[in-house]
Design a protein that fits this description.
Length: 165
């Protein structure tokens, strides 16, 4: 799927409330989200994986500027990337060595995070047999995690948006 199609869906998501106070322009949001869209486009094998990565980023970080720019410690109390143990749009932990030891530029950072995130989602889906279960494995809670169902529903909504493009 093209990065432009992914970017259009990312831009259609509600903005993180903290970012709204800065009143960013469409151009500002596009610059912020384009590297994420490119990373998703590059690592995904199909529309479902694109939608799963978009949904995961939405649920994990709301694509907040402070997270995407790498400033989790400056976020609101209780939203500081698992107390500094997670990074990036998909909140991957130190098991994702490519992100933790990788490049500081936005493109490299998002690409490393997307690769790790999609690999864990694939593993979870193979293990559990469902997308909801994959999200449970991603969360470290197993195939029956209750939050997985909501995230799988978000994937379905995003897939419909992607089909409409």
């Amino acid at each position: 799927m093209s990065p432009d199609a992914v970017l259009a869906v990312l831009l259609s998501l509600p903005q993180y409330t903290g970012d709204r106070f800065a009143d960013p322009t469409v151009e500002d949001r596009t610059r912020l989200l384009r590297p994420v869209a490119v990373a998703i486009s590059e690592v995904s094998r199909n529309r479902t994986e694109v939608a799963a990565l978009v949904a995961l980023a939405k649920h994990e970080t709301n694509l907040a500027r402070y997270v995407l720019d790498g400033y989790c410690e400056q976020g609101p109390v209780g939203a500081r990337c698992d107390g500094g143990r997670a990074r990036g749009a998909w909140q991957v932990h130190s098991w994702c060595r490519a992100l933790w030891a990788g490049p500081e530029n936005a493109r490299g950072r998002h690409l490393a995070g997307a690769r790790c995130a999609v690999a864990l989602l694939r593993k979870g889906r193979a293990q559990c047999g469902t997308l909801a279960g994959a999200f449970g494995v991603y969360a470290g809670a197993g195939c029956q995690w209750r939050g997985g169902k909501q995230r799988a529903q978000t994937v379905a909504v995003i897939e419909r948006r992607l089909r409409g493009r």
